[in-house]
């Protein structure tokens, strides 16, 4: 969803979006969300692909790949959300396409990052929701963690990629340089929880759900969070025959995931839940994951903050604030090879920069003081502090060498 949604946003704003898909059509044309198959185009595909023109190419063929390269020569942006490594195998990685169009803005979307310990894990919405800590911020104490009723990780990652495209295009407009932009679902969903995680990391308030709840019917079973003997796991889109074999549930033998997965959802959930309670989460993650079933842990904020992929990505930033002391908070959900985000100052006090900004805008000292005196403006004296340390997001290990400046390609 993330890549198509981000490209759709661009199309909605007037971009000429060319969707390059396999000659048989991209997979989501054949996977009807909610069972809404449609006539020729199912609702899932329909919802994510307006304002686009489709070009069907076989990128594994020489001619198909060359046709794509010709499209890239006149393009402004190339956006893909393959798993890490797939684009390179198809010859559509950044270095390959930059050789064709040096000013291309190349955006790569992944589940967990271009590299790191979770590089090859499936970047699926439910699994990312579970890992982000968000599930333990809602629901009733003692109840199973509750996923959001939206494809939250996909949607916020799409918005983040959209932002990355715009920022990189602005940079190219000013300098002529294209660049490599990476976005991943884990960082996007973590930084979305700016307030909650800052309350945890800065305010030292733990996640404690109350006795009463505070807060998808369109996905086939099994799809949800399940209790194990020592915790919870998130399980998504498991093939019923394979799942039944691995959890020793003979009832699933002969069931069709796309038929009984809809018509017997409650039964599938109950039988799966009963089996998964028999063994610990680590056992199921290792056993089912090794068989290609999408399963992952449900983390709380402490596990998220301490997670090795979060550490590898540099998802959190730390700095000293003049009034709040040492601060650790979610940082930047994207990485740019040319214009990385940086921390320049912490959150300002009320009117801390009123005088400074008004002066830069051309106001005289007298007029500024008149505004302050009348109450039309307010200012708080700046608090002296050491310079904020450089907290730029770390460059990805696979970041390409800088591209030579090239003429801007008209949109």
TrEMBL record:
Compositionally skewed regions (Pro residues) per UniProt: 397-411
Keyword flag Ribosomal protein: no
One matching Pfam family: CoA_transf_3
InterPro entries according to UniProt: CoA-transferase_III_domain, CoA-Trfase_fam_III, CoA-Trfase_III_dom3_sf, CoA-Trfase_III_dom_1_sf
The keyword GTP-binding belongs to this UniProt entry's keyword annotation: no
Segments for region (Disordered): 382-411
GO molecular function: CoA-transferase activity
Skewed-composition ranges (Low complexity): 382-396
Keywords, sorted A to Z: Transferase
Domain of life: Bacteria
PANTHER family documented for this protein: BLL6097 PROTEIN, SUCCINATE--HYDROXYMETHYLGLUTARATE COA-TRANSFERASE
Protein name, entry field: CoA transferase
Organism: Orlajensenia leifsoniae
